[in-house]
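User: Modeling request: complex.
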Amino acid sequence: MKLPQALVELRALSKDFGAQRALDRVDLQLFPGEVVALLGANGAGKSTLVKILAGSQPHDRGELRVQGTQQRFDSPLAARRAGIVAVHQHVDDGIVPGLSVAENLMLDELCQAQAGPWVRPSDLHQRAAAIAAGLNLDLPLHAPIEQLGQAERQLVVLARALALQPRLLILDEPTAALSAAEAQRLFELIGQLRQRGVAILYISHRLADLQCIAERALVLRDGRLVGEFNAQQLPQAIEAMLGVALDPLRFVPRLPGREVLSLRDVRLLPQTRTFDLTLHENQVVALTGLLGAGKSEIAETLFGLRRPAAGSLHLDGQPWQPRSPRDAINAGVFLAVEDRAAGSLVPGFSLRRTLTLPFLQRFSRGGFIDRRAEAAAVTTQIRELGIKTAGIDAPMASLSGGNQQKVVIGRWLLQEARLLILDEPFQGVDIRARREIGQLLRDGAGQRATLVICTDIDEALEIADRILVVRDFAVVAEYPRTDLSRNALVAELAGSAPPTPQTPRSTVRA
Amino acid sequence: MPDSLSRSLQAAPRRWLEALIHYGLLLLLGLIVLLFSLVEPAFVQVSNLFIILQSVSIVALLALGVTLTMAVGGLDLSIGAVAAMSLMIASYVMVVLDWGPLPAIVISLAGGALVGLLNGWLIVRMGIPDILATLGSMFLVIGVQLIPTGGRSIAVGMTLPGGEETEGVFSPAFLALGRGRLWDTVPVPVLVTAVLALAVWLFLERTRIGRLFYAIGGNEQAARLAGAPVQRYKLLAYVLSALLASVGGLLLAARLGRGDVSSGNGLVLDALGAALIGFAVLGAKKANAFGTLAGAVLIATLLNGLTMLNAPYYAQDFVKGLVLVLALVFTFGLARHTR
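Assistant: Request completed. Predicted assembly structure:
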């Protein structure tokens, strides 16, 4: 059999960080017109491999060949010249606030030396429009980029990358911020690219995504390539990724206990519909919906970050209206926000400081911090959550994404909550860590109500006893977990649903 | 294994670099002391060392105030003006009004606290960026203190604009604050500064509110979402900063024995410099009490030694600038390479 020449080929590629080996003799080949999934647990070396291919970091040893020629990229520009472009996980790293959508699309061209010193707005818009049209994207080109939602921003970043006409496109968690319908649009785009002969290296924790689009999966573990699998062998791929077989999900249903919180006739914005919502002790409830449907806004209302336009909140039967996060926390309502970097982490803070930040009072005597009591509590949390760290005073930046996520969730477990709200707790977390976090939340749910926001339906199905669907800033449907049809749920999310199984009001009051 | 050997060899210079960044400025301080004492034996005499500390005590107090505001992610430019105002208030109360030292101290501190509240209000309530707000209040305060005396300095026995002669005096007890020595060796200002520096250090490093100060400075949103009363603590930082500056002004009044309108104006830049040099001490990369103190002492030592060696006075600012730039290179430039 005669194989076509590989577009990109790695031979015994290695990379060290200090004494730690991030990549260990990796061999792989990528061919034009194929979609290859790159799998690996947090810290397996996926990001390092992407950085080397995209030119953010040079490799230490081994060979990197692009169409037969040996390369060693010292800048993203060098990689781009060889036809390799990466779209990174954090969308906001790829856009420039203050510029319009068109300007953002044309950013790479504007940055080039031969572009000349003058910018003609009409020219710029014309070319930006051509880029958007080539991808069948309908974007408001004149609008400032800030007006776009996360999903549209993602598409802008992607379009920008595609305008460079790459031969290898690397997508790092492109669906992390997208809901199912939006992800579907991305997959269509990927399909088009593949037909044009572009090779795509796709990194995701969402196994459902991979099953949709990837022809084969490469698995990294501890910096080594441990196997190659086709799309039908995903369970084996996961086993290879984790080094052990994953136990089947153990789901013990939990019955609702006392009512903790209820929203009555609440209207989030003046123009949106009213809805009711009741949360009980001992139950884990998932809130799902498309991006921008208003899930986070419901959480923010409960946490005192915004006031509802109408309606009333009741906590343990008493009317209640939090005026600030501080108010909410004092009442036992805790929220782990979606954006970990912007909302939870403090640059320069160690694990210990990050973990104890909300409940420092507990470790203080006469205003002074009792460092021994603090250390003991932190050590306990590290053990219970299975956080992998060099020590309690390790900087947060030294932890992998999954472990950072455990810390910012764990901080809200330091004290018994009445209502614990977690906004997208599984983002950027590999499947094993996701199961661990989910189990931990379910096991500890006895004395509190737990509300988990997840855009990903499979995540919702994995963790929740009840699933609520949010659309246009209101809870529009409710499903008990039993006899739930995933397809009906998807239809409801998109708002194209046939009659819902139950109306929200009747179930909530039932 | 040859592989691991080569790696550990690579790691060795890295460790040296890290150690250099960590202890660089303290080493520099030690080196300067060593050098000066070799060239000029009088330098290391106890009396001279206390002269150095005395010369730095007022700037150090102001720098500790800036450190507090920097910890919450802000900056207080009005401290020099507040110190000058406090000096003028104290002089006015004692010399013109003849109310005695205790009311002078209380009213000065109250005036300082008021400016701190104003700063906090402008920043927290009005949402004015910290540098602009404190720059504005700096000009305001500099202007206000000139009004009661018609722009003249206050001295014992001076003639007021109205023609009558003042009768009040700086009492010996008040002057002792600036000129006295404990056990005939430790100057009182050094003692006051040492105690307050320890208090600020304890506050920032060991108390709950201090920890929250740093959280607010690092990521205000994260601190708010963790339940910290962000606005209240930012206000507190500016009040504490202004109070420390007021104490500095009182010590200055006690040392000078007159209400000199032009004193205190140069203090703000020296204080800022000391606090910024503090970023580099022990690799802190943030405002911290120990670093600020070390930064202030480093500059004072350098200036004292150079003066002893008859270096021209106009070289002083050049030397301060050099140390500051060096410190910033230690903190930000070199630290980048160790990653």
